[in-house]
Design brief:
By secondary structure, this protein is mainly beta. It has helices at residues 2-15, 239-243; strands at 40-42, 44-51, 58-64, 67-72, 79-83, 90-95, 102-108, 111-116, 121-126, 132-137, 145-147, 152-155, 160-164, 171-176, 188-194, 197-202, 217-221, 228-233, 250-256, 261-266, 271-277. It has two helices and 21 strands.
Length: 281
């Protein structure tokens, strides 16, 4: 009966010159939202291959003045290192206490900042001699670390990035990062600041149950609003390194701003790669 009444009202409105769309009886006035445009996906070419210590469980990586600086993880094996790029030789090293699991690191001025995984403990080192200057604490886990020249930017395994004052170590901003389908981009790991963007490794991005279902994708994030600018597809890089252990994931991005060079490596990889991005498809 309700169907017949509704049909009759529509017929009457049409006969009077009023379409259902113009009538106050119209029940569907919403406009479908347009589908999100797909993000650009850049591929890469390898410019040069360098040796990398396969005992280094890479958690943080950055470039400064001709050298790579690397922070490594695993209890009893965590360290901060200064590395000669051409040879992979460790020139300087500070070993963390055995109970510490090292994570990301970054440089602001002449100070290196390094965090730990579950201890809620960070450290500040002098760049020139790795002298420990101070320690600081934070809430939650520590994963990746980079900076925008003013603030430390920390990932904690979720979709949220924290902006932290390097003097007070207080968080002054949080940034939620969402995928193009509107879902949170979880498991953001190692970070690097590249030309005004935050580049991020995604831990186990190849696992569809955990993340993207796309192996070794790097996310490019707008630091102003958390929106994704694009992806970098490194799915076929160094397969022999990743076959040895499921945890040998891509993790480590370093950018040389002076010469516009990009370096990537992974946990316990035997190689470090200098890469160049190809135009996005």
């Amino acid at each position: 009966m309700r169907f017949l009444l509704l049909f009759a009202s529509v017929a009457i409105a049409t006969a009077c010159g009023n379409t259902p769309g113009n009538s106050t009886t119209n029940l569907n006035t919403s406009t479908p939202k347009p589908a999100a445009a797909p993000l650009n996906v850049s591929s890469y070419e390898v410019v040069k291959v360098y040796p990398h210590d396969d005992k280094a469980f890479t958690q943080g990586l950055f470039f400064h003045d001709g050298f790579l600086y690397e922070s490594t993880g695993q209890n009893g094996k965590s360290s901060l290192r200064k590395v000669e790029i051409e040879t992979g030789k460790v020139l300087q090293k500070w070993d963390l206490p055995r109970e510490d699991f090292g994570e990301g690191s970054t440089l602001i001025g002449d100070k290196i900042y390094m965090i730990t995984w579950q201890q809620g403990l960070g450290r500040v080192f002098n760049l020139s001699d790795f002298k420990l200057l101070r320690e600081f604490s934070y809430q939650g886990e520590g994963w990746g670390l980079t900076n925008d020249g003013t603030n430390l930017i920390m990932s904690q395994g979720t979709h949220v990035l924290k902006f932290i004052d390097p003097n007070t170590f207080q968080s002054n901003k949080t940034l939620a990062v969402m995928r193009e389908n509107g879902q949170p981009l979880m498991q953001i790991n190692e970070l690097e600041w590249v030309k005004g963007e935050i580049w991020a490794n995604i831990w186990h991005s190849e696992d569809p149950q955990k993340s993207l279902g796309k192996p070794n994708y790097i996310a490019r994030i707008d630091p102003a609003n958390g929106k994704l600018v694009g992806w970098i597809d490194l799915s076929n890089i160094s397969p022999e390194d990743q076959r040895r252990d499921s945890e040998n994931t891509l993790n480590g991005i370093a950018y040389d701003a002076a010469t516009d060079r990009i370096f990537v490596t992974g946990k316990n990889w035997k190689k470090l790669y200098e890469i160049k991005l190809k135009p996005a498809q």
